[in-house]
């Protein structure tokens, strides 16, 4: 019995030591003095380049603020969306900050920070429209949509007739022109659009109950880095950093 107890104790000690050694993710970041961040650089207003070529955007500023809280330098590594998550697997960077939605399928293979941004599907109509006030009111109406998008399927589910478009801006244009009654789209895209075109005669009349959340994506088991990033995000919300970035790009708090 004594030998068995000693053996179990030794194995447990080895297990604890192994876990501690296995999760040195935060220590590695601090030792390197930098947090490497995978991002697209082509997805405005989240991650894109200015006319002068500088990388900027909501997600880029969130990444910089997180790195500052960790007392390290942010280093961005750009990649096309199709290879962005694969780059994390290949350890080309420590995390991905690129509006990566938190889904059950992704959570099976990866870890996420706490959500740092959320968006809802919304119904957008012309300011003068007084016949549509809800998703149900889309039944029989013409909705301007990219036909392969999730929003197009939501419009179909609501009974709308779809008018094909190439993207958000064209959908809005058709609504303004009266060639479509509404468009069902992303609230964040609408807020960004209104920042650039505040006089556009369109409004949100209905919003989805459940928001889709995005978080900082990282490899499984890197709990020390995950915890540090969660603490950084919490600090950013407490000290006003998050609100300042959110207001800059969307005109309101987009964390929920």
TrEMBL record:
Q: Where is this protein chiefly located? A: other
State the compartments where it is located. Cell envelope
Assigned keywords, A-Z: Signal
Task: Show the CDD domains listed in the entry.
Answer: PBP2_Ngo0372_TcyA (cd13711)
Matching InterPro entries? SBP_3_CS, Solute-binding_3/MltF_N
Q: Where is the signal peptide?
A: 1-22
Gene3D superfamilies, per database record: Periplasmic binding protein-like II
Q: Which residues form the Solute-binding protein family 3/N-terminal domain?
A: 34-253
| Listed PROSITE patterns | SBP_BACTERIAL_3
User: Is NAD given among the entry's keywords?
Assistant: no
**Per the record, what is one GO cellular component?**
outer membrane-bounded periplasmic space
A Pfam match is: SBP_bac_3
Q: What family, per the record?
A: Belongs to the bacterial solute-binding protein 3 family.
Q: What is this protein called?
A: Periplasmic substrate-binding component of an ABC superfamily amino acid transporter
Q: What is the lineage of its organism?
A: Bacteria, Pseudomonadati, Pseudomonadota, Gammaproteobacteria, Enterobacterales
């Amino acid at each position: 019995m004594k030998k068995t107890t000693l053996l179990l104790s030794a194995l447990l000690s080895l297990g604890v030591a192994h876990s501690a050694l296995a999760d040195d993710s935060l220590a590695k970041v601090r030792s390197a003095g930098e947090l490497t961040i995978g991002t697209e650089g082509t997805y405005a207003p989240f991650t894109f380049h200015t006319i002068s070529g500088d990388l900027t955007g909501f997600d880029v500023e969130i990444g910089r603020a997180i790195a500052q809280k960790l007392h390290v330098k942010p280093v961005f590594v750009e990649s096309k969306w199709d290879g962005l998550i694969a780059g994390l697997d290949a350890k080309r960077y420590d995390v991905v900050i690129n509006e990566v939605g938190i889904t059950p399928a992704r959570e099976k293979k990866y870890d996420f920070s706490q959500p740092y941004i959320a968006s809802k599907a919304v119904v957008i109509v012309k300011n003068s429209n007084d016949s549509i006030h809800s998703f149900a009111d889309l039944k029989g109406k013409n909705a301007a949509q990219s036909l392969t998008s999730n929003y197009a399927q939501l419009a179909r589910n609501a009974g709308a007739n779809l008018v094909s478009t190439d993207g958000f801006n064209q959908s809005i244009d058709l609504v303004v022109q009266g060639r479509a009654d509404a468009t069902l789209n992303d609230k964040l895209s609408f807020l960004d659009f209104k920042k650039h075109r505040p006089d556009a005669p369109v409004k949100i009349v209905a919003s989805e109950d459940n928001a889709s959340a995005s978080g900082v994506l990282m490899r499984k088991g890197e709990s020390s880095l995950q915890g540090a990033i969660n603490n950084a995000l919490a600090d950013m919300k407490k000290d006003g950093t998050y609100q300042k970035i959110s207001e800059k790009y969307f005109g309101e708090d987009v964390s929920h």
